[in-house]
TrEMBL record:
UniProt source species: Myceligenerans xiligouense
UniProt superkingdom: Bacteria
Protein name: PemK-like, MazF-like toxin of type II toxin-antitoxin system
Compositionally biased residues, Low complexity: 59-70
Region (Disordered): 22-88, 133-153
Pfam family, one: PemK_toxin
Single Gene Ontology MF annotation: DNA binding
Compositional bias segments (type: Polar residues): 28-37
């Protein structure tokens, strides 16, 4: 009986390692970062919260200076000033922590188009490679609005991306994990005109 338990546990560990390896490649993360895990009973293990001191590349809804203040609801003053200098700038697609709408203490590392600033915060729109738009028009399910923006260096597999238009995320510049690419100015202008 105990041998069977050990074999089952080893199988679960092997599946978790394989799942982490495959999902890290899809997200473009390094192999040392945590991925979703499960306990031997199959229940999810909660993702760790933000670190106490924060810093570039630290996952979590904040980066050492307090909790996520919530999505930006004001009027965006769009800025296009990309500069691939290692610092995040509007007009760039970057990889960072995006809190879930229903629970800001949890989220996912994903690409985000930076469109402006709100004080110390960057303002961003999340990207996805999932197809939410039908026939190239703006649209989506559940009241979410998406727009096709094509392909770019932010997706290592070269998949077409869509940007979500009706959720503006505040991003701590220190929480940006990496720059992905610069979005073409004409596409950027179409995105901000659709907001």
């Amino acid at each position: 009986m105990s041998d069977n338990r050990w074999i089952r546990l080893l199988g679960e560990i092997a599946r978790a390692v394989l799942k982490a390896f495959l999902s890290d490649g899809d997200r473009g993360t390094s192999s040392g970062e945590a991925s979703s895990r499960t306990t031997p009973s199959g229940t999810p293990v909660p993702k760790p919260g933000p670190p106490a001191t924060g810093g570039r590349g630290a996952p979590g809804p904040s980066s050492g200076n307090g909790s996520y203040p919530g999505d930006f609801l004001g009027t965006i003053r769009p800025t296009y000033s990309p500069d691939l200098d290692g610092e995040p700038d509007p007009g760039e697609v970057v990889w960072t922590w995006v809190p879930y709408e229903e629970d800001h203490s949890q989220g996912k590392d994903r690409p985000v188009l930076l469109v402006g600033r709100d004080g110390k915060w960057l303002l961003g729109l999340q990207l996805t490679s999932k197809d939410h738009v039908r026939h190239g028009e703006q649209g989506g399910r559940g009241g979410r609005r998406w727009m096709d923006i094509g392909t770019g260096g932010w997706d290592r597999q070269g998949r077409p991306s869509e940007v979500r238009l009706n959720r503006v995320i505040r991003i701590d510049p220190d929480a940006v994990r990496r720059e992905g690419d610069v979005l073409d100015r004409a596409v950027f202008d179409k995105v901000v005109a659709a907001l």
